[in-house]
Design goal:
Its EC number is 2.6.1.-. It comes from Blattabacterium sp. Belongs to the class-I pyridoxal-phosphate-dependent aminotransferase family. By secondary structure, this protein is of the alpha/beta class. It is built from 13 helices and 14 strands. It folds into two domains: about 150 residues, Aspartate Aminotransferase, domain 1, CATH 3.90.1150; about 240 residues, 3-Layer(aba) Sandwich (Aspartate Aminotransferase, domain 2), CATH 3.40.640.10. The chain starts with 6 loop residues before the first helix and ends with a helix.
């Protein structure tokens, strides 16, 4: 049957984060005590003021199709949020609300990319970037980074990667999977390169914007010389713990917004009406309303940093955002652990799930086979138990 499938489908892989989570659930259903540190899903409930807004929306009758790109009042709230938090000026005609930031990204890629166009992606990258680019039959150009530079690219690397075929640069800050946050000065230096190549568009994924610790978040669209090259992607899944509500959005040049509206109108039409109304309330709230979650993530980050020090042969840096740590585990490759030969990060992640019943995600899914992504979006108790198990098996 495989040869009856489209070549586009055969060219992409399943999401390894979702696949690992499915394996963890399967073991849990068999009665095993599995701790799932594979998914980037906060364990908090959405804030009460968001829940109340959703209930009111139901009572007020928001049950029907909305405009494809979202309610005007939500788009207006997004514009106000962009200006308040990021000092970015967008109008409602530049906003498209989608069924999660993931749909927002694929809308943009389908709008821009043709066969054999090149898309520059720094590695490590979020798992779906590479697969989405391949789905568009375009060519990913990967820029490797080093832990010593907190997994961030240098301007020289960027300029060297740009060719006459380059259509787009795609990255995230704060970064999934590394937790790295590009500073204002670092983005300013990259912006100087992009200014020289006005035909290159920039898609910046800022879904973890509010989950920053020592480094303040900066949007690359803040630099006026490249503002018209930038598509800013954001959403409510992470900072507001609204993963299942599926609300993402873009701020972009109007011609991009119009093309995304066109694509979305033929694919899924509008996002959920109730979730949109709740999103208005969420975005109108000052970020200090969710500060309690950010403080808890930072506390968990610090706990992970303390516990991971005690595990032999794990190399790691200090993430400044998101809720992941991305340790290098290649020190275990080529060795037998409890009778099992470990050759790569896929086998190491499988080994941990088998022997410790802790689910993580192989670094190969993110473009770095030497590492492992561990989420600390779970409770302190689960984090402590997970790292205790890993330490016991590996040490």
């Amino acid at each position: 049957m495989k040869n009856r499938l489209s070549h586009r489908l055969q060219n992409i892989s399943y999401s390894q984060t979702i696949a690992m989570s499915a394996k963890a659930r399967a073991l849990k259903n068999k009665g095993y005590d599995v701790i799932n540190l594979s998914l980037g899903e906060p364990d908090f409930l959405p804030p009460n003021f968001v829940l109340s807004a959703a209930k009111k929306a139901i009572d007020k009758g928001y049950h029907y199709y909305t405009p494809v790109s979202g309610y005007f009042e939500l788009k207006k709230a997004i514009c106000e949020k962009f200006y308040r938090d990021n000092r970015l000026k967008y109008t409602p005609s530049q906003i498209v609300v989608s069924t999660g930031a993931k749909q927002a990204i694929i809308n943009v890629l389908l709008s821009l990319l043709n066969k054999d166009d090149e898309v520059i992606i720094p590695a490590p990258y979020w798992v779906s970037y590479l697969q989405m680019v391949k789905l568009c039959e375009s060519s990913p150009v990967i820029i490797p980074t080093m832990m010593e530079n907190n997994f961030k690219i240098y301007p020289e690397q960027l300029e060297k990667a740009i060719t006459s075929k380059t259509k787009l640069f795609l990255f995230s800050t704060p970064c999934n999977p590394t937790g790295s946050v590009y500073s204002y000065e670092e983005l300013k230096d990259l912006a100087k390169i992009f200014k020289k190549y006005p035909e290159v568009m920039i898609l910046t994924d800022e879904i973890y914007e509010h989950i920053c610790y020592s480094e303040k978040h900066t949007s690359i669209a803040i630099f006026p010389d490249i503002y018209h090259q930038v598509i800013t992607v954001n959403g409510l899944s992470k900072a507001f713990s609204m993963t299942g509500w599926r609300i993402g959005y873009i701020g972009a040049p109007e011609w991009i917004a119009q093309s995304c509206d066109k694509i979305q109108g033929q694919m899924t039409s509008c996002p959920n009406s109730i979730a949109q109304i709740a999103a208005v309330t969420a975005l109108e709230a000052h970020p200090n309303k969710i500060e309690y979650m950010i403080k808890e993530f930072e506390k968990r980050r610090n706990l992970v940093l303390e516990m991971i020090k005690e595990i032999d042969r794990f190399q790691f840096n200090k993430p400044n955002g998101a809720f992941y740590i991305f340790p290098k585990v290649s020190g275990f490759f080529g060795q037998k652990l409890h009778g099992k030969m470990i050759q790569n990060s896929d086998e190491f992640s499988e080994f941990l799930l088998e022997k410790t019943k802790v689910a993580t995600v192989s670094g190969s899914a993110f473009g770095d086979n030497e590492c492992l992504r561990i989420s600390y979006a779970s409770s302190e108790d689960k984090i402590i138990e997970a790292f205790t198990r890993i330490k016991k098996v590996l040490n």
